[in-house]
User: Fold this.
Amino acid sequence: MTSAQFALRTFQIYLANAYVLPDAGVFLFLETNNDVWEIWSGFRASKLDSIRVFEYGTASSNRLTVVRELHDERRNFRGITLKSTTVIIDRDHFFGFDKKISSDLDVFAHMHYEMIVTLTYQLNFKIDLTIDNDYGWSLGNGSFGGLTGLLQREAVDFSATGVFIRPDRMSVIDFTVGTVALRTTAIFRQPSLSSVHNILLLPFTLGVWLGVCATLCVFVLTLVFLMRVNNYIVEQNYGTLNIPEIVTLVHGAICQQGFNSTSTLGSIRVVVTILFLTSLFIYTSYSACIAALVQSNSNSIKSIQNIAESPMTFSAQISQYGKVYFEETEDAELKKLYRTKMVPSGKKAFVKAAEGMERIRTEFHGFQVEVMSAYKIIGKEWREEEKCGLGEIQLFKIPLLSIALVKKSGHKDIFKQKLIQQMEVGLSKRIASQWIPPKPSCGSSKQYVSVSVKDTYLTLAIFGFGVCISLLIFILEVLHHAWTNRGSKKNAWE
Assistant:
């Protein structure tokens, strides 16, 4: 019997049911003459595959010689079939992996399937693929359901889709490398600037206020000076305006209002003309600024706390992990958001991506969604001007997706190496670019939109306050007049 036959028989006898997959480091030392040992390595590509043996090298008391490296042999599965499972949540919109039409909920299953197909070519094996509808979450007794449970029970060899790298799953299954970063975010439209600030006052900085006051004072002093000088030099009184009337005239001009009296003096008319031209340019600039501010969005919502305390309604995309992460979070603000905005909505708290994104367009609404789904809908269905003014806040960080294997799988290192190779040569990036759309940019062709009462309520509030103050002063004047007349009548009777 040759050494190769003896080594093969030994492996078959003692390791017939052992899990000696390509990553296993099991060696057999056969003693030959002159204190020299032959080193034989044995492994199988899968649990159902037959064991193969290879001479690795020789060893003596003072020397180790490697005859051959077994990298190529370990990476050639010789066409065996491995069992795998993927997860399809929306079966109604699944038409096979050879179709590009897919539900947004199952895009990552399609992406990973392409990676797995490439992996089968790299390692020369086939897959027996089954489909489940659940990634698998802890059942509370140490076991898991869904895909994770199949891996835990070693019913399949690996997953054909990405699985979240979670601490609770790491105790029962193994992971390769992070393949795709699934990013979720809360998307909303920032409220209009006019709804959170008094846009009538926003254009006025300290310098503008000083300039307006200086203009008012200069024109008042100029008119008073001209009126007094001319009336002093010339005996004829050319003007009938006193100082309060001059102040009212200048104030009215700055506010784009006329005056019912004027002077026949040419110098004063020139000053009044310049006054009204100056106010025209100031008012035109102010009006243009107000028109731009009315259609501008604020940046008032910057945190989870702002969302929770705002009148914004809120919902999240339907997914297997969404409710789990909302309920598991330790963030106090996120708990408050979930408790006050989502729990009272019941089943409407979790909706499809299309429905949630449509509510953002028509309501003051926030929506927790995978950015891939959101960008796809925005890019295809939204107008260019609607892409502007959107805000994003990441509520919680989602773990990386990774190809999962059974615990202590002998395929782990080899799978990792080949998946890393796919990343290094750009295959993973190419696959991701086919499925994940880029972030839509705000279009340059911005259209004017109609202004609602909500956008001008601060203006109406100022008008209302002015009316109330006028009525209050009017009442005080009536009371003062009545009190004065009462005193006059009393003196007349005496």
Notes: Residues 165 and 399 are 6 Å apart (CA to CA). The chain is about 45% helix and 15% strand. The longest strand covers residues 52-59. The mean pLDDT is 81.
